[in-house]
Each structure stands twice: as structure tokens, then as C-alpha cells.
Amino acid sequence: MRQAIFALGLAAAALAWPGGATAQMAEDGSAAQPANTQAGARDCPPGFGCVTRRPLPRYVSVKGAEARARRGPGQDHRVDWVYKRPGLPLRVTAEYENWRRVEDAEGAGGWMHYALLSPSRTAIVTDEVADLRASPDAGAAVVARAQGGVVARLLQCQPDWCRISADGTRGWVPKTAVWGVEPGEVFD
């Protein structure tokens, strides 16, 4: 069994791989995910999910203590990944009925039932160490440091900076230091 362990600031969490193929491939090596379609999907606007009519891609987070990513959209499909980290950010890339095709910061993923996902925005620190600053300015005072792999809530994003919260500490980090937000994405 292959396991990928994220380096975390205060707690360790595992991403277990119970199978032997990549998360995106069927056992015969072909692509396993259906297109972002279903009955009536011809009316689906470009860049939006045909089920929810929400933008694609978009970011969500793992809702509970364990979430299984399957090879296809349905419980009869093999489980490829088991995410054991509440709040881990995921990118939704497709929709099919009650299922969402997701990928993590490393590009692995699969199909998850929508009930396993939260709309809460989080980000994972991708730099070895990221300085949290008092304001969105490279010259601002450093209020804390976050190790690579720390998952934080996204509070606000400007074109190049995001305000995050982890373990009760808030600060601004460059977008390039985290995964879970699109370049140029802005929200309050």
C-alpha cells in the first residue's frame, strides 16, 4: 500500500492509496470520469457545472474526518483515495448528478459524493515556510509563520495576497505560497 503523508505544522494526517493505478485511470488504463454532462446538459453554460450551475473549476474542502474519492461517480466504483484531513482544500473540476470530480494540491483525486464536501474555503501552505504578515505588503510585519502543509481558512483574497487563519492566528500571505485559490481571484 502506497501512502502520501503531508508535512503538517502541528498535526499529521494521511492520504491513503488503497489501489495500484493512478486516481484518474480505470483499471484498463482508460480515463474513468464521464464528461461534465447528463440528461439535458446541452443547456449547460460553458465554464459552469451542469448540475449546480456553479463555476468550474471551483474550490471546496473536505467536510468530515474521512472522505473517499472513487474511480467513477457512484458507490459501485473502486475507492482510490481516502482523505483523512477535515478542511483539506479540493478543486471541483466536473459534476455528475450528486457526484463531484475533485483533485487535491498534488493533482490526485477522483469522484466524491457532494455530501462529503463543504463550500468553506481553505488553503494549504505550499511553501516550506510562509510568513503571515500584518497587511498585504511584503514589507509588513511578520505576525506568524506557517509550515508547508498547514491547512488554513481563507478569509479574504486580493489579486496577489490572501488573508488566512490557522490555529487562531490571522495574517496575509502571497497567493503563490498557498494552494486553494485561483491566481487573480478576489473575494471578501
TrEMBL record:
Residues annotated as domain SH3b: 57-119, 120-182
Q: Which InterPro entries match?
A: DUF1058, SH3-like_bac-type
* Pfam families listed in its UniProt record: SH3_4 (PF06347)
Region of interest (Disordered), ranges? 26-45
Span of the signal peptide: 1-23
UniProt keyword list: Signal
Q: Can you name this protein?
A: SH3-like domain-containing protein
